[in-house]
Description:
Radius of gyration: 19 Å
GO molecular function, one term: copper ion binding
Keywords: Membrane, Translocase, Transmembrane, Transmembrane helix
Order of helices and strands: HHHH
Amino acid sequence: MNKSALTLEQKKELIEKKKQKKLIQKLIVGIILSIIILLGSINIIPGLNDLSRQVRFIILFILALPVQVWVGSQFYKGLVVVFKYRTADMNTLIAVGTLSAFIYSTVVTFFPILFT
Length: 116
């Protein structure tokens, strides 16, 4: 079928299917990385214990970064929208909560001396 011959309803349906496919991809990547992060945090992954604590934290940070930035991007986009209208919604709660935890973890990872 020619794309120019698509009706408005068909175009909307194609866009919705693309959005769903991307959300499923984000879900799968998020689950896989989160499981690896969890197992790495509780020292179950073989060989990870042989590394220094700082190196382990940096590896876990690198794994968490795409989860925070790519998988959670829709919440940050939602936060920007509601911020423009000086209101709040569930995106605000999720974005502020995860961002504050991520910032704290980033500081602990790269500046551990501040917490000793």
